[in-house]
Write a structure and sequence with these properties.
Blueprint lengths: L1 E2 L8 H17 L24 E6 L3 H10 L4 E13 L2 E4 L6 H9 L3 E2 L2 E4 L5 H6 L2 H15 L6 E6 L10 H21 L3 E6 L12 H7 L2 E4 L17 H14 L5 E6 L1 E6 L9 E4 H11 L4 E3 L4 E7 L4 E5 L3 H13 L4 E5 L8 H6 L2
């Protein structure tokens, strides 16, 4: 069943922080984590470019993200509106604006597939209880299929992240339960000619609890790796991504999943930390647009960390020193050779209307 719940009443900032914090919990558990000067408008290519990019469309910036998607439809093969949340075995709630037909129809006319994301932030143990029960798994798969049937969708993207908080004693059974759910769901979606996409944490040398890449790679059409939050809101300042980190992630991923099925998730956002690790001030989420506006307002010089391949700057807010790390087109250009090295051409942008506009010609030339 699809209902509007308390999810619809959450503030944008609270939900964004909750989602990206959940994505970063795997780092705290010993695993991989999840989630320049302002340029002018990007030049439009003279001929259609390879459609190697998918992107998430945030419901809290729905119109801006939709217009951004239309502007770059020649590069976007798939848009995943961040529209649904699984809250129990038989219930999928809708975020505000979910299923807007104008957006679905407009993207389809532009030649872009619409594969909405179903996420979850269940309380500890709730997802595990669903995944380890065959009856509840079937009930949940039924609910997901009802969701995809509500509109002219081209498939579903599952972004389930509670595995990071699953205890060691139940980790294997929960992981295998998710594989069973994904196998059932993908089979059903494929029977209808629809796509099955799974979003996962990065797997690295220090990975702890994570979904089964190899098994999911056999049943899903695409596996999206959240290549961001190397440093996150709950930790010390630093880059959200790193060339060496990407190399480690893709070395392991391509050994388990065909490179053609992989999409590397690229951040179009950043974090604004207090520079003093003992500070009690909040770390703030910023999009590329917000980071650049803040940098300009503070008159802070643009800096680029050559080691990680990411921009950053520092400023004084009147009470303390702050440090902002984010991602822009220059950083993406530094990271793309790592993807090429591993034969990965797919990318997934988090998220539309967050990004440096110059990232599109960079991706077009990849």
């Amino acid at each position: 069943m699809i209902t509007f719940s308390g999810v619809a009443r959450r503030s944008r900032a609270a939900l964004v922080t909750a989602l990206l914090t959940a994505a970063a919990l795997s780092t705290a558990a010993g695993a991989a984590p999840t989630s320049h000067p302002a340029p002018g408008p990007p030049a439009r290519p003279a001929t259609p470019t390879p459609r190697t990019v998918s992107a998430w469309l945030p419901y809290w910036d729905q119109e801006g993200a939709y217009q951004d998607a239309l502007l770059h439809a020649d590069q976007l093969h798939t848009v995943s509106p961040f529209w649904y949340e699984a809250v129990s075995a038989g219930r999928i709630d809708a975020h505000p604006g979910a299923g807007e037909r104008r957006i679905i129809d407009g993207l389809h006319r532009a030649g872009t597939k619409v594969v909405p994301t179903v996420m979850e932030t269940m309380k500890s143990g709730a997802l595990a209880a669903i995944l380890t029960s065959p009856a509840r798994r079937t009930e949940h798969a039924d609910a997901l299929m009802r969701t995809v049937a509500t509109r002219d969708y081209d498939g579903l993207d599952l972004d389930y992240e509670s595995i990071a908080a699953t205890g060691d004693a139940t980790y294997v059974s929960v992981r295998d339960g998710f594989t069973a759910l994904a196998t059932d769901l993908c089979r059903r979606l494929h029977a209808l000619g629809k796509q099955c996409v799974i979003t996962v944490f990065p797997k690295t040398a220090t990975t702890g609890r994570i979904w089964d890449y190899a098994a999911l790679g056999r049943v899903a059409d695409r596996i999206r790796i959240m290549g961001y939050n190397l440093h996150w809101s709950g930790g010390d300042p630093g880059p959200l991504a790193d060339t060496r980190w990407y190399d480690d992630i893709l070395t392991r991923a391509t050994a388990l999943v065909p490179a053609a099925k992989l999409e590397m998730g690229l951040p179009a956002y950043g974090w604004d930390w207090p520079a003093d690790s003992t500070s009690t001030s909040a770390t703030k989420h910023v999009t590329w647009k917000e980071a650049e506006a803040l940098r300009a307002a503070k008159g802070a010089p643009y800096r680029f960390d050559e080691v990680s391949g990411t921009p950053y700057f520092t400023y004084d807010d009147g009470t303390e020193s702050r440090e902002v790390w984010y991602q822009d087109a220059r950083g993406v250009a530094v990271h793309l050779p790592v993807l090429r090295k591993h034969g990965v051409s797919g990318t997934a942008l988090w998220a539309l209307d967050f990004e440096d506009p110059e990232v599109w010609p960079v991706l077009a030339g990849r």
